[in-house]
Write a structure and sequence with these properties.
The relative contact order is 0.10. An eight-stranded mixed beta sheet has the order 2-3-6-4-7-8-9-10, with helices on both faces. The C terminus is likely disordered. The chain is globular, with a radius of gyration of 21 Å. The chain is an alpha/beta fold. The termini are far apart. It has one domain: Rossmann fold. 39% of the residues lie in helices and 16% in strands.
């Protein structure tokens, strides 16, 4: 055998180890895709959307509508996905405010003009501070809505035991980021070296308030099986909505104010009612308590 051929396995091992090291070092850049902006740019864009910084300028935790409900029936904190900034999520406002809620669009460290770097501990800490500020504002425990990465943040905040949360709406959530990463990078022992694990199953193991889970049938980012695994692990009052023929990023086009009313009625009052799609699945829209 040629000496050159003898060295091929060693080169392959070195390449494998090098790629693994690169994934480990750069993992947060793969997970988080923030759009960093200066304060003046953020403030100008927010003003164009009719939003003002919340709780105050420069040390803001998020944004609220300058002309939101004057006597809100409750408050909702929204935690967004991994890309862009919270100002890209103003699509939540018309329906939720139309139902009488004050809506806070919460931002993460390292996103927009908010100082810091994106990581699990910083995001969860900011979320806890946001809930504390919301409680001081209205004196009523807020409902948390989390989308994708934001669902993991919302679950971690609710499960921290440090603040009171009225209920959860988790949209296209995963079970744990370690599980999801292992599926994506199956050729590495990914689950063992991921830094930000975002284990929503563990976070919600003792959470007793209602949890609404929203699953996109054609989700290519967070597969339905990961969402179902989270749902099945929840031991309290829960309900799942399956959005048919909808992908990870197209779900906002598949829901309307009537749908939001149904979901919020469940979270606030435990109500039952028609679902957006049953599809013959025993899970779709069926309330469960155990």
């Amino acid at each position: 055998m040629s000496p050159g051929l003898c060295g091929l396995p060693a080169l392959g091992v070195l390449a494998y180890l090098g790629l693994g090291a690169g994934l480990f070092i750069g993992q947060r850049r793969l997970i988080y895709r923030p759009n960093r902006q200066g304060w003046e740019q953020v403030r100008s864009r927010a003003a164009g959307l009719g939003l003002r910084p919340w709780v105050d300028e420069r040390r803001y935790l998020g944004f609220v509508h300058a002309d939101g409900p004057t006597d809100p029936k409750g408050q909702i904190l929204v935690f967004h996905g991994n890309a862009g900034t919270v100002l890209d999520r103003s699509y939540y406002l018309p329906d939720l405010e139309g139902l009488g809620y004050r809506v806070v669009l919460c931002e993460y460290p390292g996103y927009g003009a908010m100082p810091g770097k994106p990581c699990q501990s910083g995001m969860v800490e900011a979320g806890i501070r946001a809930v504390e500020a919301a409680l001081q504002d209205l004196g009523k425990a807020p409902i948390l809505i989390g989308e994708s990465l934001g669902a993991a943040v919302a679950a971690a905040v609710a499960g921290s035991g440090q603040v009171e949360v009225g209920g959860l709406i988790l949209i296209t959530p995963w079970d744990s980021l370690a599980n999801l990463a292992q599926q994506l990078y199956w050729y590495f022992p990914t689950r063992w070296f991921i830094l930000d694990r975002f284990d929503s199953m563990k976070a919600l193991s003792g959470f007793s308030k209602p949890v609404a889970v929203v699953m996109a049938e054609l989700d290519q980012v967070v597969p339905a099986r990961n969402t179902l695994r989270l749902y099945e692990s929840i031991g309290g009052h829960k309900r799942i909505w399956k959005l048919p023929s909808v992908g990870h990023n197209s779900w906002p086009c598949a829901v309307d104010r009537r749908w939001w009313r149904e979901v919020l009625d469940f979270v606030e009052h435990g109500t039952q009612g028609p679902t957006i799609e049953t599809g013959g699945s025993p899970l779709s829209g069926r309330p469960q308590t155990r």
